[in-house]
Design a protein that fits this description.
Chains A, B: One of its GO terms (biological process) is DNA-templated transcription termination. 2 copies of one chain form a homodimer. The first copy, chain A, is α/β, with parallel strands linked by helices. Chain A has 22 helices and 28 strands. In chain A, the strands form 6 sheets. Chain A has a 7-stranded mixed β-sheet. Chain A has a 7-stranded mixed β-sheet with strand order 13-14-15-16-17-26-27, with helices on one face. Chain A has a 6-stranded parallel β-sheet with strand order 20-19-21-18-22-25, sandwiched between helices. The complex binds zinc ion (ZN) (5 copies).
């Protein structure tokens, strides 16, 4: 009998010993980081509300109880009973029975009403029908990404169960080494922005954090080929952690599966869905630009199948000697700070991913309280000496002013924006301004992936800022459902129509004017002197966005769009820049994050910024807070302990 | 046709083009780092003295010319001719013909006379007989190690030729990467003394420098198992460089071959022979102490077979982008500083190995002039704030005084000493003191491996200090042949006899009284109050030597030596310590090495010293010379460029 088998036998004995005699335990199995307990008496288990919590704290494991398949009632009958138990106002939109796990997935508009106070409704369901209910929210705006992911996972349920059992056994394997050390290896994202990728390693475990590309520098991918990365095989990694879905962190995650990786990806649920959306788009763009994509869309599906979603604050064993906890990073939907607790109190490292320190309209500010943390790996995008940004109140006033001036001229406002994050933030500004009469009510057209990204945001309101979450729970207050918002889904015809009509605001991808429907909008409204083009995000060197920002007004429109080669578009519109809507903490925010961090870490590695930014920030933190700080290069390894 | 084949074809064409028309070129092959040119006209080649040098500088390769096997004269006839050409005073002791390579190995007491002025005698031999002469020195004292190694290599000549051809092709393979970086990874020997092991890596190449054990801490071996070391297979290393034969640098070199390594070991010729001697003894000791040896003696032979000896100053291609040069380190016989030149002027790193900065009786001081060097990896054994040592003149005076006092009492001087290095240094002190009448002439008995180690020293006089080398070339001035020196080869009987006679000096291993014949000497002369026991080397914590130094005089003599268990030996002898004979630079020597180094490196990594020593030295070098200095931990990776 293997070590894991013995361990499971012992756990089963302990559980049998702990539960009342009238509750039978038929099996105990690992499923990813969770311990699943099968019982023929799910109703009695469910009645005993505190039992699971007590077992979990005694065994120091995450525990899920499932009915032994023998005791499940017939789905049709169960369906009736469930619909009786759940109050009608919950708005159940789908019920899905999985005989293999004994779970019934309940999709409802108001999941809280399905759960009931302290889970009382769920327990009643289990008592009545045997099935274990799992609740998901009916997206208020339908998202094809979310439904594709959910359908795919439903269809791959058998495969996924095997994967989770294998991962579970890996996590709970025996420790092999007496050595004690913790190391971080930098594979990218040092003294540069892009291709985020790090390894945290101990004598037992190797975990990869992020695996992104470098926008504007195709081919500059993380140093995966060196021996300490995948040189000894992708299977040598225990786990992958994805802080958030931006491509500079996620683009090459699916590539790992092409290289033979077959383990878990830990991230939040929205990060999983957004990664699916953005990596598939990444493949599309590569194909359109005639570049060979680094992997096929099949690998994106593999990645999604291997995702183990964690909620903020869940403490999860990911290997024999590492516990992972994700915390809100305030940057984009589902973005996380990844906190690693190594050994039994041996060492703690937090990877910031990308952070926004203060609250925005969309998100609560980044968490900076941890039980312990000795080393912080900190993003430094705006870490430079002078990287202070306009504060958001002033930025919003500036934007409103530009919109009012343009409206007064009878023109349109064209805003290139990234689909994920900044678009939704601007939508919230516009919705409030119209509601409060600061700008006139007018159509806001959303083009490109913005609508889909917004739909994903509304699917996961628990990841949004508290007050916004509460508003989304009530359809009549959901700001994203405001009448002014229009999804451009009618192609060129609809765009022409919008162009022919009166004042409007247009939000369209891509955010740096490097392709996508914004190119079409440039043709429709760019030559109109009444139009104002407003940049609200960073425009990288070499992009068309940066050129227009710098005064270019003769735009070559070679390809696509049904026009001949060599045509030139002459822009006559005003061009404005409104900063302050960044998803990143500015220099002050980064300093405040560290200053108020609790506990204060001993060491900080400044990464995810150009050479000057990381060195400025490293030096400032050293002098202000007397910590050991570093501005690592790529391909270095730091040992702690 | 592979890249290497094409390259060889091109080289052959270039050579054919360059040599006079009447010299035929039949083949061109790589053999390790050398390019071997086969010709049917070796005599004409030899006549044209400058041709090889010109070819070498034009092709930027090390070139060896060999006769096409067809043109070699019959060995018996060649033997006669060769003996006629070489002057009798050269003292030829052996001739050995190798038909496969066309070489004749000439062993002579005076190799210089075989070589002739600027190689004139060698060229004449080639002209007369076709064979290529290779000259080795007849050891003035016969060394079984040296003759075993030479016989073994003779016997493995075919195998070795295959190995060298394979390595040659590896070295001259095509470069694969456009990246440019240089990294050092620390696998041991950081903030500790022992288990020296480093990797220097570039996008093309990975080279291991040293692979030692940690004396007094069995099991604390270099971190070979991590992915960036051998995790992706021992075959992933391009080369191994051994700075010197001490076990803290060499003990685990043979283990690499057990792990599947099959590439070259670059070191000096004496380092190769001493490594053979010391690692075989290392296996013996492990067996005697009942520990499982980490590898079998077969692996020592594999290591020797894969050695490619380099002379100090030879610039050698060891991979497509790295050139290695060894320089005298002044520490023990054949000890080297390993200088790596990366790329075409890209970066230079020097690994000090262990160094002695000033001249000693045995060796010239360490070299610290290099064409270029940006980073120095520096030993720090005596790097601590107060690690200043008595200078050698005073130390010698102290030793002489102790010897005279003991002689006056009619007693014996017992000196525990390491076989390699310090024993020979003491022998030179004693020889001179007796010759100059500073101490009375008396027998000096050499026990343990000291005699054998001395024999190896006299085999390689070109590695000794200039004036010592010159003396060894004349038998009547060779200090190691002084009449007073006696090799104890008669076992207990001879020792008893020495004990029963009058005043004498006894040098015996082991140096820290942890085993070996010194244990027997303790019994023979230790209880005699007329005896003086003199420590001339560092005694590590936990050794019997350290205990005796601290005043212990009741020695448990449990096992071996024909005595019963539980016997106790009571020492009545005087115990003295004379420091200043260390093979390591002291704090002042380390500072002077760096201060006068030319060019001054930008960065220094202080290693091979305990935590305090490395940090003290790192901080001192930073403050005095304003360089970037580090005291790395094991398992870190530093990137340069
Ligand atoms: Zn981001
Ligand atoms: Zn980022
Ligand atoms: Zn520093
Ligand atoms: Zn040494
Ligand atoms: Zn050493």
């Amino acid at each position: 009998m293997s070590k894991v088998e013995t361990q499971l036998e012992d756990l089963k004995a302990e559980i049998v010993n702990e539960v009342p005699n009238d509750i039978s335990i038929s099996d105990v199995q690992y499923e990813g980081p969770e311990l699943v307990v099968y019982t023929r008496d799910p109703k009695k288990f469910a009645k005993n509300g505190d039992l699971i919590r007590k077992l979990a704290s005694q065994l120091r494991k995450r525990i899920t109880v499932r009915p032994d398949p023998d005791v499940l009632s017939v789905p049709d009958r169960a369906r009736e009973t469930i619909m009786d138990v759940i109050p009608e106002e919950a708005g159940v939109t789908d019920l899905d029975f999985h005989a293999d796990t004994g779970e019934v997935v309940i999709e409802a508009q108001k999941p809280g009403m399905v759960i009931g106070r302290h889970g009382s409704t769920l327990r009643e369901i289990t008592q009545q029908v045997g099935w274990t209910p799992e609740v998901v929210r009916t997206p208020p705006i339908e998202s094809s990404t979310v439904s594709n992911v959910r359908n795919f996972l439903k269809q791959e349920r058998d495969d996924r169960r095997d994967i989770l059992e294998r991962i579970g056994r890996q996590i709970h394997r025996e420790e092999m080494s007496d050595d004690e050390w913790v190391r971080i290896t930098t594979l990218g994202c040092c003294r540069e922005v892009g291709r985020a990728s790090f390894i945290i390693s101990t004598p037992e475990t190797r975990v990869l954090i992020d695996c992104g590309d470098k926008p504007g520098a195709e081919g500059e991918v993380p140093y995966l080929q060196v021996p300490e990365a995948l040189g000894s095989g992708a299977q040598s990694l225990d786990a992958v952690v994805l802080t958030h879905a931006h491509l500079d962190h996620s683009a090459l995650i699916p590539l790992l599966f092409k290289y033979g990786y077959d383990g878990p990806i830990y991230c939040t649920e929205p990060t999983r869905d957004l990664m699916g959306l953005l990596t598939l788009d990444y493949l599309d763009v590569a194909a359109k630009e005639g570049r060979a994509p680094p992997y096929e869309s099949e690998m994106v599906r593999e990645a999604i199948k291997h995702c183990i979603p964690l909620e903020y604050g869940d403490v999860t064993d990911i290997s024999p000697d590492i516990k992972l906890t994700l915390h809100n990073a305030g940057h984009i939907l589902g973005s996380s700070i990844a906190h690693f607790h190594v050994g039994d109190g041996l060492y703690n490292v937090a990877f910031s991913g990308d952070i926004h320190y203060t609250d925005t309209r969309l998100f609560n500010g980044a968490v900076n309280e941890f039980p312990r943390v000795e080393t912080l790996v900190l993003e430094s995008t705006y870490g430079g000496r002078n990287d202070y940004q306009t504060d958001q109140e002033d930025s919003e006033r500036n934007l409103i002013e530009v919109i009012n001036e343009t409206h007064d001229k009878g023109g349109k406002v064209l805003i290139p924006a990234f689909a994920v994050g900044r678009s939704q933030e601007i939508m919230l500004v516009l919705e409030e301004a119209m509601r409060e009469g600061k700008i006139p009510s007018m159509p806001v057209h959303l083009d490109g992936m913005i609508w889909e990204a917004t739909a994903i945001h509304t699917t996961y309101p628990e990841y949004l800022r508290d007050d916004l979450r509460d508003r989304i729970f009530h359809d009549d207050e959901n700001p994203f459902l405001a009448d002014e918002f229009n999804h451009i889904d009618g192609g060129e015809e609809e765009r022409q129509q919008v162009a022919d009509e009166g004042p409007a605001i247009i939000l369209s991808t891509s955010g740096m004017v490097t392709g996508g429907p914004i190119m079409s909008w440039l043709e429709h409204v760019g030559p109109d002197p009444e139009t104002t083009m407003v940049f609200v995000g960073y425009q990288a060197q070499g992009t068309l966005g940066r050129r227009i920002q710098n005064g270019w007004d003769e735009i070559p429109m070679g390809n696509g769009n049904g026009r001949g080669r060599g045509d030139t578009l002459t822009l006559k519109c005003d061009v404005e820049t409104v900063d302050g809507f960044s998803g990143h903490a500015d220099r002050q925010g980064l300093e405040n994050f560290v200053k108020t961090m609790n506990p204060r870490p001993e060491k900080v590695l400044c990464v995810h910024g150009d050479e000057k930014s990381t060195q400025d920030l490293s030096s400032a933190l050293y002098h202000e807070f007397n910590m050991r700080t570093f501005a690592p290069k790529n391909l270095e390894t730091f040992r702690f302990l």
